[in-house]
Specification:
56% helix
Amino acid sequence: MPRLVPATDRPAVVAHLADDVEKRGVHLNTGAPGTKIILPALTDAGSGGYVFRAAARETTRSPERR
C-alpha cells in the first residue's frame, strides 16, 4: 500500500481518523473502496481496536444520520 502521508504527519492523521470513526459511533462512512484502505491503515498505526469494533457492529447507520 502506498504511503500517502509523510511519517511525521501520520500520528495526527491517524488521530483524526480515529476521532472521526468514534464520533460516528464506530460506523464507517468510507464505502467499500475506502474501507479497504482505512482499516489496514488504522491497524498498522496501532488503532486496531477501532477496526475490530467497526467490523463487529451488527447495526448500520440510518440514512438520516449520515
